[in-house]
Amino acid sequence: MTFQVAVIPGDGIGPELYEGSKRIIAKLIEKYNLDINLIKVEAGDTALNKYGEALPKQTLSVIEKADMILKGPVGESAMDVVVKLRQMYDMYANIRPAKSLPNVQSKYSNVDLLIVRENTEDLYKGFEFVLSSGVAIAIKVTTEFASKRIVNVALNYALMRRHKVTCVHKANVMRITDGLFASVCREVLKGKVNFDEMYVDAAAANLVRDPTRFDVIVTSNVYGDILSDEASQIAGSLGLAPSANIGDRKSMFEPVHGAAFDIAGKGIANPTAFLLSVSMMLSRMYDVSKENKYILASKSLEDAIIETYKSGNKLTEDVGGNAKLKDMVDEIYKYI
Amino acid sequence: MTFQVAVIPGDGIGPELYEGSKRIIAKLIEKYNLDINLIKVEAGDTALNKYGEALPKQTLSVIEKADMILKGPVGESAMDVVVKLRQMYDMYANIRPAKSLPNVQSKYSNVDLLIVRENTEDLYKGFEFVLSSGVAIAIKVTTEFASKRIVNVALNYALMRRHKVTCVHKANVMRITDGLFASVCREVLKGKVNFDEMYVDAAAANLVRDPTRFDVIVTSNVYGDILSDEASQIAGSLGLAPSANIGDRKSMFEPVHGAAFDIAGKGIANPTAFLLSVSMMLSRMYDVSKENKYILASKSLEDAIIETYKSGNKLTEDVGGNAKLKDMVDEIYKYI
Ligand SMILES: CC(C)[C@H](C(=O)O)[C@@H](O)C(=O)O
Ligand SMILES: CC(C)[C@H](C(=O)O)[C@@H](O)C(=O)O
Questions:
Q1: Are B68 and B3 in contact (CB under 8 A)?
Q2: Which PANTHER family match (chains A, B) (predicted)?
């Protein structure tokens, strides 16, 4: 099979990240003989201005036929692109690694944890109403089905990692919704991995106190949104963090960082998060196809990024270097 | 007037914290001629076991007549004590300072921020339902009234501090509820202080990146719960953080930390958070009575705690010393 990949370059620094990274993707395709077809589509603020829709019909029709989506950062219309796509294609597992990189100045070292965030329900359902003037409500939805599904994803990751899962919730207050999530965690995880539970406020503090105590964290949508940004900053910088949105039929890969309009067009953006997202996509292609070449390509890209950080002389400004986006991409290219 | 204070020593290390701190409170009352009457009451896990209720009737009848509540940590029944009291007496403003202390090992220095957390609504309302087997919902409530009230509290603190307020929400996703909160922030704060807005995930990352960029953070109940634990850990330790729950008729003061059953009864608990909560109570008594002696007593206690950290030789184990609770209390006592 050939993987059809819809590429959304996005807004701000998004287009230069994709343009800059293309030769790396091309090298991987050639070297590993990958069956990947990239189709560029428009979505985000620029698309909204041009077509009146952040996710135009022509984009959706390409995505509909694609196996994967590779997405750059999107500006203010992010919700209408990313949350909509996650729900539309039931991409239920948001996978967010937080891992220290060599030579990145940080108060913490040896961070290596994975946040598995439920990606389809909770307050992200978008069920919100004005009951009467000045009184608004939103509905948080928690189902046993979605909880089981996400906890099983966490279990599988843990079994490939350090066999530890921390289930994060606030069941002392949200006894019914978070209580359901917590009881599913116990049911699925107990006896299978080293399992513990933590209230979300304590988890936010413990990430600061000692991030190395965590292996896999599984949690619901809102808590996962907050904790994953915190964790990636603890690992070094939000600007370096990749993510995957995994569904049974379609998956989407995107950097966690935003469109960074302030540095757009200057050629100084850091390609790490975007390229690590490409690596996560290749790894997912392996999971789907079971063809070794994809996991080899994924590993090769990740290693090339790590080598570039180790050598340390072609890093962009945000990580203390003075290289341009292009120089850093060239260096990573060399290591592949 | 004489302030009637209901004291809930609580569970775990709570009773020894209160017993240990009593002589300090007595010294302040004497030295500053304060009109305070302390009445000890039972609430929490121990009360639950004894009376079948975490908040027994006799406790509530004392609290009903009290002006203030001084509360130690409570175990698993915390929700039924603390959230219930907050709502019952409409103690709408949860005030959580995060401030570095001298000689406390921390990756961060000069942290001095204040989280103003809405304390009565959001998912804490407790409106939760099982819709059908395996499907649970909870209702997040946001009102203009409560939002205005809390944002005005934040404004008042900011005007006494560094004139900066960051309004934290997630209005890009929760457009109606968080959107209402955000619009109230703009309406109340713009032009009056240095005002900015931040999504809660970005705030969680920015606290890690540079906590000194914040002065006052105002936010809703759930985000405030999470961010305040994170911030107090960043300032040094969750174990040192005090808090106030302010209402128009009644207020409650409590350490942020839990009952720490593992070290209970050993006489090694750190009294800082409990005593800083007493200092916040004295400051509130000044706000209510406008009698200078209360703010002088509040300041004197806070300064004595800071002096004890500066001298550094009577600190408990959790902050790197080898003093007992009693030694540390004696040292603070000396400085008053
Ligand atoms: C842009 C926003 C809607 C999104 C989210 O909240 O999920 C982002 O913060 C993320 O975490 O991917
Ligand atoms: C004990 C718990 C219900 C409480 C809360 O969530 O408000 C606590 O975490 C706090 O922040 O005071």
A1: yes
A2: DECARBOXYLATING DEHYDROGENASES-ISOCITRATE, ISOPROPYLMALATE, TARTRATE, ISOCITRATE DEHYDROGENASE [NAD] SUBUNIT ALPHA, MITOCHONDRIAL
State the best of B123, B168, B240 to mutate against chain A, taking most chain A CBs within 10 Å.
B123
* Same domain, yes or no: A111 and A193: yes
Q: Are B285 and B68 spatial neighbours (Cβ–Cβ below 8 Å)? A: yes
Given a cut of 90, is residue A1 above it in pLDDT?
Answer: no
Q: How confident is the model at residue A280 (pLDDT cuts 50, 70, 90)?
A: very high
Nearest CA to ligand 1 atom 11: A225
The predicted-structure confidence for B100-153, as pLDDT tens digits, reads as follows 999 999 999 999 999 999 999 999 999 999 999 999 999 999 999 999 999 999
Q: Are A5 and A35 in contact (CB under 8 A)?
A: no
Q: Which residue has the tokens 């091309």?
A: A26
The answer to whether residues A119 and A200 belong to one domain is: yes
pLDDT surpassing 90 at residue B219: yes
User: Quick one: A265 and A294 in the same domain?
Assistant: yes
Domain boundary residue among A205, A235, A265?
A235
Cα gap B56→B176, rounded to integer Å: 39
Grade residue B1 by pLDDT with cuts at 50, 70 and 90. Answer: confident
In the beta sheet, which residues pair with residue B217? B115, B166
pLDDT tens digits, one per residue of A137-148: 999 999 999 999
- Looking at all shown ligands, the one closest to residue B44's CA atom is 2
Within 8 A by CB and 6+ apart from B137, the residues are A139, A140, A141, A142, A177, B128, B129, B131
Integer Cα distance of B42 and A154 in angstroms: 42
Q: What is the CATH number of the domain that holds B298?
A: 3.40.718.10
Establish if B52 belongs to a structural domain: yes
Is B185 contained in some domain? yes
Q: Are B318 and B237 in contact (CB under 8 A)?
A: yes
- Domain count within chain A: 2
With CB atoms and an 8 Å threshold, state whether B205 touches A229: yes
Q: How many CB atoms lie within 10 A of CB B202?
A: 18
Q: Are residues B189 and B222 in the same domain?
A: yes
Does B101 map to a domain? no
Return the structure tokens found at B35: 């009109």
Same domain, A277 and A225: no
Cα–Cα distance for residue pair B126/A231, rounded to 1 Å:
29
Together in a domain, B69 and B122:
no
In-domain check, residue B102 = no
Residues B129 and B88 in one domain: no
To the query of whether residue A178 is one of the catalytic residues in this protein, the response is no
Helix segments in B33-176, DSSP class H: 45-51, 57-65, 78, 84-88, 144-160
Instruction: Work out which ligand 1 atom sits closest to the CA atom of A74.
Output: 1
Of B145, B223, B233, the CB nearest to A209: B233
Counting one residue from A and one from B, how many pairs have CB atoms under 8 Å apart? 158
A328: containing domain? 1-99+241-336
B123 CB under 6 A from ligand 2?
no
Q: Give me the residue from B107, B209, B229 closest to A204, CB to CB.
A: B229
As a whole number, mean pLDDT of residues B300-306 equals 98
Among A211, A235, A259, residue at a domain's last position: A235
Residues 6+ apart with CB under 8 A from A127: A138, A139, A141
Q: Which of B85, B70, B152, B68 is nearest to B119 (CA)?
A: B85
Answer yes or no: is pLDDT of B36 > 90. yes
Q: What is the mean pLDDT of residues B17-37?
A: 98
Q: Say if residue B247 is in the same domain as residue B302.
A: yes
For residue range A77-130, what is the model confidence (pLDDT) as tens digits? 999 999 999 999 999 999 999 999 999 999 999 999 999 999 999 999 999 999
